[in-house]
Amino acid sequence: MSQPVPIHPEPLARDAEGRPYSTRYGDIYASRAGALGQARAVYLAGCGLLDTPPAWAGRAQFVVLETGFGLGTNFLATWQAWLDDPQRSSTLHYVSVELHPLAAADLLACAEPALRDLAQELAAAWPPPVRGLHQLRFAQGRVRLTLALGDVRELLPRLELGADAIYLDGFAPARNPAMWEPGVLKGAARLARPGARLASYSVAGAICNPLRQAGFEVRKLQGYGGKAERLQAAYAPRWRTRRVEPRAALPAAADRRAMVIGAGLAGAACAQALASRGWVVDVLDAGHAACGASALPAGLAHVRLSPDDDRLARLTRAGIAALRDALPAAGRDAWWRGDGVLLLDTGTDSASRGDAGSVPQALALPRDVAHRVDATQASALAGVSLHRPGLWAAGGIAAAGGLAQAWLSTPGVRRRDASHVHRLQRAPCPGWARSLASGADMTTANGPPWQALDGDGRVLAQAPVCIVANALDASRLLDASGLASGLPRLPLRAQAGQAFIVPAAELGPLRGLRRGILGDGYALPLPDAAVQACGLPAGTRWLLLGATYENDPARPMPAEQAWAEIVGGLQSMVGALPATAPAAARRFHGVRAVAHDRLPCAGPWPDWAALGRLGPAALHRPAYELPPLPGLYLSAAMGSRGLTLAALAAACIATHIEGEPAPVEQDLIAALAPGRFGLRHLARLDHSIDMPA
Ligand SMILES: Cc1cc2nc3c(=O)[nH]c(=O)nc-3n(C[C@H](O)[C@H](O)[C@H](O)COP(=O)(O)OP(=O)(O)OC[C@H]3O[C@@H](n4cnc5c(N)ncnc54)[C@H](O)[C@@H]3O)c2cc1C
Q1: What is the mean pLDDT of residues 235-261?
Q2: Is the pLDDT of residue 198 over 70?
Q3: 466 alpha carbon to ligand 1 midpoint, in Å?
């Protein structure tokens, strides 16, 4: 188990002339002639953004990839040029890899006067120095910055994106050779879309030659600020390169209609993610919005910690960021209270064991991501006396049902209640009918829109993109639609659960609780919006206590037993609680859908027939490289983390559909890939190995 390298904010120094200077690399951050001038002359001009017409003219999306964020001048200059250009693309995506990020205040202090307003926005959104990807949105979401914090040699091979422009920056090759290694340059070429432009201030042979070998046509042009030459290149390999093609942008003229099956948190988050990108989305539910597990009045969403910063820990960090990003602007505070969650030590729960307790320090996690608290500090934060120490972790309380409803109110989303989807199919068309008649596998069809059919075979909805988000029933639906291609069903199991909503005044030691606590069970103060949505008497403080884990949804635990189980756990953290549920208590019962490895299934559904045609070697590809069945996606198996992970799952799906940079690295995309179980089955791997919870 390797310990991940922590990220430390880089202290900013100045050289004798007052220019920003890195003591680590013994070099100044930008050209002596000025950072903004260099950004424009080397990078924007080098990548055709100052041409007539500019490289981004008329495009739906333009993606810049940069190595070395540094002072952020290249990003700010690109953003400013995009704002100033009437021919700009609809959206600008900027992905930058940086191992030693500066602090927000230093970025602002170094900002060029002409870029100061934008720098202020950047500094206000600046993420904590934590390894991994951080997505920031500006200009009403039309400018998206993905900061990839970590070593470029480790991160670049794990990015999932297609780049139209590549800026090779960073300290001089002689000072920081790791940034310019042939593997890094090859890694950049892997992500270049056909015709992508590349620019750098350096023309060292050690850079030009590997770029040529990777398929770039390299030119040396007059340099900037006293440098004799600068580098400009275009990705135009003269031979067929063996590579998985990078993500392509969905064309501006594409039909942006989708249907989502299931109006719980998972489906609602997908609908919101697409509608906020201009899509029209029909959401079909057998009942009505948030009538399944997402009817939960409120629950906890939080980052999870692990000593080796495992996939779940990284997913939950990305999940909380995606949730915050997706919160509806209107009424945001009604559905979300993001003042953290107290994870109290239990001695058994891996999230709060002693070893995980030291994680914030070991990983150099900033205090606003997680920090250790003793019992006194925990009590002060919770507003009640707690018997155990633990961790304060980023996250909060979300009104689950209310949040799903709010997402479904996004303009462009159309709700279709009482629409039970029995089966999916491609819309019949002449070619389609012939292939069916010839017995062709349905999954080989490519093109016609998807249709959702009811039990009588009537078409309920039709769209080029279909997202299956109906929790446990997803497994049946895919099977009934002939999409499992003879593989075992998606291994989802039902795990029922109960929670109680109780007037705080009746809960003795918990009555003053003002923050979510989690250990052996959890307790949280119910947000006012949830009190209202549940039709509970206003003016009373209500707490939600949870939850049971039951394996037979058909035979729920009797209420007394469920109460005893939940309260039994909580008592070890807070002291004696009522032995029986107060008369005013309300009981919530729901069923979670859980996958074998307890991770969600989120992403494109694979084209198993196409995989078969690729031959046995394809079975050893990572799950994110499975050939997708065009237009079909899955977001299910949220388990007991729907609040933490539904928005991230939706972001993964929406970015895949649009061809935008992915919000997480490839290994995390693979961890969520719905085809992972089928792939394991096909590869005859031991699919009984379970991930730790
Ligand atoms: C007691 C309890 C406590 C919990 N506490 C927390 C917590 O604190 N934090 C947390 O993050 N999570 C918690 N969870 C889990 C959370 O509720 C789920 O992860 C989440 O709600 C799952 O959302 P979903 O959209 O995947 O599923 P659901 O909300 O179940 O939505 C699925 C929807 O699909 C619809 N549907 C099904 N089949 C069809 C069909 N064929 N056609 C059309 N529609 C269909 C259903 O009607 C339903 O509305 C808890 C769960 C329980 C039971």
Answers
A1: 89
A2: yes
A3: 19
DSSP string, 405-430: HHHHTSTTEEEE-S----EEEEPP-H
Quick one: 145 and 220 in the same domain? yes
Token digits for 287?
């009942």
In a domain, 678, yes or no: yes
CATH of the domain at 182: 3.40.50.150
Half-sphere exposure of 487 (CA within 13 A, CB side): 27
Atom number in ligand 1 closest to CA 470: 34
Q: Provide mean pLDDT across the span 334-355.
A: 76
Residue 555 resides in a domain:
yes
Q: Are strands 336-337 and 395-398 parallel, antiparallel or unpaired?
A: antiparallel
Q: What is the pLDDT of residue 445?
A: 38
Task: Find the CATH number of the domain harbouring 505.
Answer: 3.30.9.10
Q: Return the structure tokens found at 43.
A: 């990078």
Could you tell me what percent of the chain has a pLDDT over 70? 94
Q: Greater confidence, 20 or 301?
A: 301
Residue 302 near residue 343, CB atoms below 8 Å? yes
Q: Which two tokens stand for residue 480?
A: 């009934």
Chain-centroid distance, C-alpha 570: 32
User: Ligand 1, residues 284, 294, 634: which to mutate, most atoms within 8 A of Cβ?
Assistant: 294
Exposure string over 526-555, b if 16+ CB within 10 A, otherwise e: bbebbbebbebeeeebbbbbbbbebeebee
3 state DSSP class of 199: strand
Question: Apex CA 471: angle with CA 467 and CA 473, to 5°?
Answer: 95
Residue 483 domain flag: yes
User: Which of 30-44, 104-118, 628-642 comes out lowest in average pLDDT?
Assistant: 30-44
Give the model confidence (pLDDT) of 278-301 as tens digits: 999 999 999 999 999 999 999 999
Give the pLDDT band of residue 440 (cuts 50, 70, 90). Answer: very low
CA 124, CA 105: separation in Å to the nearest integer?
9
Question: For residue 323, what are its two tokens?
Answer: 């949730």
Domain end position, chosen among 561, 595, 629 = 595
Whether 164 has a pLDDT exceeding 60, the answer reads yes
CA angle 663, 139, 257 (to 5 degrees): 60
pLDDT band at 443 (very low <50, low <70, confident <90, very high): very low
Residue 662 sits in the same domain as residue 675: yes
At how many degrees (to 10) do helices 400-408 and 642-658 cross? 20
Quote the CA–CA distance of 173 and 170 in Å, as a whole number: 8
* pLDDT band at residue 4 under the 50/70/90 scheme: low
Residue type, 505: A
Span from the CA of 568 to the centroid of ligand 1 (angstroms): 26
**pLDDT reported for residue 328:** 86
SS3 134: strand
Domain assignment present for residue 586? The answer is yes
Note whether 145 and 225 are same-domain residues: yes
The pocket around ligand 1, CB under 6 angstroms, is made up of 261-267, 284-287, 291-294, 296, 299-301, 400, 420-421, 469-471, 473, 477, 497-499, 546-547, 588, 590, 592, 636, 638-644
* Residues of the domain holding 503: 298-398+494-595
Which of 72-86, 237-251, 487-501 is predicted with the least confidence, judged by mean pLDDT?
237-251
Tally the domains of the chain.
Answer: 3
DSSP letters of 474-509?
HHHHHHHTT-STTSPPP-EEEEEEEEEEEEGGGSGG
DSSP conformation letters of 452-463: EE-TTS-EEEEE
